[in-house]
Amino acid sequence: MAYGGELAALLAACTWTGSSLAFAGATTRVGSVYVNVVRLFAAAVFLALTVFVMKIGTEISYAQLLFLSVSGLIGLVFGDAFLFKSYEYNSARISALVMSAAPALTAVMAYFIFHETLSVWAILGMAVTLGGITLVVLERKEKSDRHHPVSMKGVFYAFLGALGQAGGLIFAKNAFTMGPINGFYATLIRVLAAILVITPLHYFGGHFQHPIRVFAGNRRAFWFTMLGAVLGPFLGVTLSLVSISLTSLAIAATLMALVPILMLPAVWILFREHLTWRAVLGAFVAVAGVAILFLR
Q1: Segment 138-153, tens digit of pLDDT
Q2: Measured between alpha carbons, how far apart are the two ends of the chain, in Å?
Q3: Is the pLDDT of residue 265 over 60?
Q4: Distance between CA atoms of 73 and 76, rounded to whole angstroms?
Q5: Domain segments of the chain as ranges
Q6: What is the 3-class SS of 280-291, one letter each residue?
Q7: How distant is the alpha carbon of residue 196 from its chain centre?
Q8: What does 101-148 look like in DSSP terms, one character per residue?
Q9: In whole angstroms, what is the distance from residue 248 CA to residue 217 CA?
């Protein structure tokens, strides 16, 4: 399918936009730790049922299993943990801006590891897209930013989050270069690896003790978490793996970074949030960059 990888990356960004809104609604009610862990358990159930019902082949090499497991640890545990940590020091706006470095980091890693090279048009498309994303992220100011200086520690944590996201894609790409793997099964392996590490860490750390009681006391948070799990770790992550198996890592990472752009119509429709001309301009610039990537 022509542009199959690019389309999968765009769909991943769309599903992650929905999951971000759902997880935000759940987190404000029960906290990030419970949402983070339960979303992975829910995704694992959905993925396992999908693999079983669709009779998806599960035969992969030990090396592929190892690369996918490490990918899950780096992306879903290391990367997400530092991203959430950055929120303690800076606003989501600043953290999102730093996370925009993920496509560039991915491109550099892909060049040295897989010798992936990009055409001039591809580089131009990536630059225009990321420029539009930066315009939107910088425009969405929060009141807290006006009174608190940017924390370099928070910036460092967000950069580690971006590095984790890029590293997770690199290790997953390694697995796909060794042979064909179904996206749902690959995602299941990544999620299970993350669960095996993140659950005991939070449980013995005293942060994840009574999930049933917590969610029973807030049913809306539970359903928000389930919705986010379907859109995020289940569909979104699977689509991201399909994307990197069909197109270059740098282009896939750039298209998947469009979440701040896709957030604009969502918050305008759902929350009637006012959109400034600069944010709208940034959205148009990002869309122009996407067009260049497809027409290159």
Answers
A1: 765 554 444 456 788 8
A2: 16
A3: yes
A4: 6
A5: 4-295
A6: HHHHHHHHHHHH
A7: 20
A8: THHHHHHHHHHHHH-----HHHHHHHHHHHHHHHHHHHHS--HHHHHS
A9: 45
